[in-house]
Each structure stands twice: as C-alpha cells, then as structure tokens.
Amino acid sequence: SDIKTINKFAMNYSEYINEMNIIGLTGTNGKTTTAYLIYQALNLLNDDCAYIGTLGYYKKEGKIMSLPNTSPDICDLYELIIDAYDSGYRNVVLEVSSQGLIKRRLEGIKYNYGIFTNLTQDHLDEHKTMENYAKAKRIMFDNLKDNGISILNYDDKESKRYETKNNIYYGFNNGDFKVLETTYNNQNTIFKYSYNNNEYSVNSSLLGDYNVYNMLSCIAVLTLMNININDILKNIPLLKSADGRLDIVKYDTNSIIVDYAHTPDAISKVISAIKPITKGNLYTVFGCTGDRDRTKRPIMMNIVTSNCKYAIVTMDDPHNEDPMHVVDDMLENNKNNNYEVIINRGDAIKKGIS
Question: Number of helices and strands (H, E) in the chain?
C-alpha cells in the first residue's frame, strides 16, 4: 500500500514538481543554515521561495507550521509543495535527510540543484555503518533532473561519490567557487572568493569557517540560477542564521552563545569558531540525545573538555532513555576532570551563566 501511495503522488503531481525549481540539500551538518540562507536570499531578491526542513514549513511571510521530521511524510511533503505552487511559488528549498531518503519520504521528487555539505559521524543508530550512511545520501543525486547540477564541497573527501554529469565545487582548498581569504571579528565575517576568474568580497553576519561554507554554497546556487552577482552580494549582509544556530546573547561583559550542535563535527566547529573571538574563558553546557548513536557521546565529551575551560554536562532530549545512562556513556574512558554533571537543564544553564 505504501508503494501504491508513493506512485499515486508521484504520478498525480509530477507535472507540478517539474515546473518547480527544487533545491535539495543533504549532508551531516549545515543543511538547515544553508537552506535557510537560500530561502531568505531568494525572497529578498523577489523570487518567491518556500522552505521545508528542520525549522518547519516557511513561506516568504515566515513560518507556517512545524514539522515532525526534517523530511516529512511523503503525503505531507507533496501537499506542502503543491501549497507553495498554488500560492504562486516556483522555488522550493528542501532539507533532505538520509532517513527520509531510505524511507522513501522524498520518492518522485526531482531536483534542479543538489547541494552536498559534508559527511561526518551521525545517525549510526539508523544506518549502522558510515558506508550505508553515505550511500543513503547518494539517492538524492540520482534523482536530479536531466539538466540538474550537483554543488559539492571540495574539501570533504566524500564529495566525489556524489558527482553527476553536471558538477560545481566550492571550498577553501579548491573549487569553482574558491575561498581566497577570511577575516573574523565578534560581529561579522568578511571573505573573498573567486569564480570564473573574478574575485568577490562578501560581508556576512554569520561567524566561523563552517558558515563560510554555508554562505558560499548559497552564493553558488544563486549564481547558477543566473541572478546578478551585484544583487546577490548586496543582500548577503541581510541574511541571518536560523534560531539556535550560533545565536549570541550579550550578558554583562560576556557572550552567551546558543547552538544546535549535536554531532562531534558540529560541536568541534562551533568551538573552533568561537575561540578566536573569545578573550576570556569558554564554558560549555551540553548533553547528548537519547535513543540515538551512542558511539558519538564520549567523542563529544572529549572534544568539549579538551577545548573548553569547563563543561557542565546536562540532559539533552532523552527520548525514552534514562538521562543518567546517556551521561554514563559520555563519561566512558574520559580522562579530563574539568566538568560537573547537573541533569536538570535549567539548573545547568543557570550554573553556566553564574
């Protein structure tokens, strides 16, 4: 019955999907921020764009509804795309999760652009091995339209597996869109990049190397859509990160930074982005998710305690797992003692602020 439902949706709505400019993003980290940047940019450029992903369903006026998954059920997904179509939208940016791909929640969707951000450890509770995880993401690139373009992170060693007949690369080390230099302070990032033998300067409010990757892939897809580069660069300073992505709250002479990082790679990159603009000590309040990949828990604990002055270990979303069981996993083989455990998250945050 599931296959019949999938075929029904794919057949009934294929003509609408084919008229839409579908931008799909997959990767371990960066999907949400990059998708949200593209969504904002196209709407600022008066090229109406809807967003479907971790943050929910958005149209140009803002959030319409929350969604239960990054990639919702196929029936819901098609209905959201058709809602955007009926509202006059011809651009949709989709976060494409590996779980959604293997569970066929995106069956029948054909993409104009497929963006690969990176591949690091996550979701091994679902995929069991990194090889399976990597193969799951390939499904999106196998469903590009005939003239579809793959936009790939040159600096990630896994990017080659997502090549198709039309490929564009971006990165620091090389690529069609190549970063030339970067400058950071506690308010913005300025970076230069080259494309087609021309150099461009970008001023962004997003901090850190990983946000340069996010911004550059956004610029790449806008450029490939033949949007005037001066219009693109004029609007980049107006783009904001999504809530919970390196949100900075000023507190007395300090900064409180809230971030969604929930993988070893993500939390390492957040710390790396914050350290250069931190004059004093870095304290981290964090936990690990219950009922998910247990192997990443001690890795994340080691990253935080090795790179911060002090850590306060607390509860993340435990799902159905005992929070103390999650903490026990985090402390396994831990060799650092610059931490304490406060299970109640509110109390942990208060201690961190104090």
Answer: 12, 16
Q: What is the DSSP letter of 126?
A: H
Partners of 57 in beta bridges: 52, 65
- Of residues 250, 267, 251, the one with CA closest to residue 307: 267
Check if the beta carbon of residue 109 is closer than 8 Å to that of residue 141: no
Distance CA 247, CA 351 (A): 19
Distance of alpha carbon 76 from alpha carbon 84, whole angstroms: 12
236, 239, 244, 250: CA torsion to nearest 10:
90
Asked if residues 146 and 36 have their Cβ atoms less than 8 Å apart, the reply is no
Three-state DSSP at 133 gives helix
Checking DSSP bridges between strand 167-171 and strand 56-59, what pairing results, if any? unpaired
- Two structure tokens written together for 117: 């951000």
**Taking the mean position of all CA atoms in its chain, how far away is CA 107?**
21
Closest among 158, 124, 127, 55 to 150, alpha carbons compared: 158
pLDDT recorded at residue 248: 83
Q: Are 291 and 283 in contact (CB under 8 A)?
A: no
Query: pLDDT by residue (tens digit) across 207-260?
Result: 888 899 999 999 999 999 999 999 999 999 999 988 888 888 889 889 898 998
Whether residue 1 has pLDDT greater than 80: no
Residue 241's alpha-carbon distances to 37, 154, 211, 238, in angstroms, are 7, 23, 9, 10
List b or e across 202-222, with b for residues whose CB sees 16 or more CB atoms inside 10 angstroms: bebbbbbbbbbbbbbbbbbbb
d(CA 150, CA 249): 37
